[in-house]
Design goal:
The chain is mainly alpha-helical. The chain contains six helices and two strands; from the N terminus they run H-H-E-H-H-H-E-H.
Amino acid sequence: MREATLQYKEELQFYDEIFDFILQDLETMCEGRDIITEGAAYLPNLMNKRGIPWNRYLAIIPTRNFQINHYMQREWIHSVLDGCSDFQKAFNNWMDRDCLFAEEVIRQCGENRYLSFVNDGKTSIKDLVEMVSAHFSLEV
């Protein structure tokens, strides 16, 4: 039920605080091998601070409509927002927070010269796989 801007700022702070722990876990799990990860915690500014080059990072960000449409289909949404006094307001705040976060990721990508792609859901999975594979020089 909290205001979206406050949630967004806290989310950025949270990821900043836990990022080193995430990287420690990854380093332990991958044992020097390359891996592909997914998650909001891999903010461009944090990756840049760790010296991750432009060709080793890619952000795929959903449009607002894509985000909302897909979240509304998730069965667990109701259980997450069950205790809120106004389900729709809480959901809207959540989506507004995520949209602010997406805008920040796009901004940070530009600032750090990382590639970002805004996904509106119209690009096929095959095309997304080809784009990601080309960026990371992987064979499809």
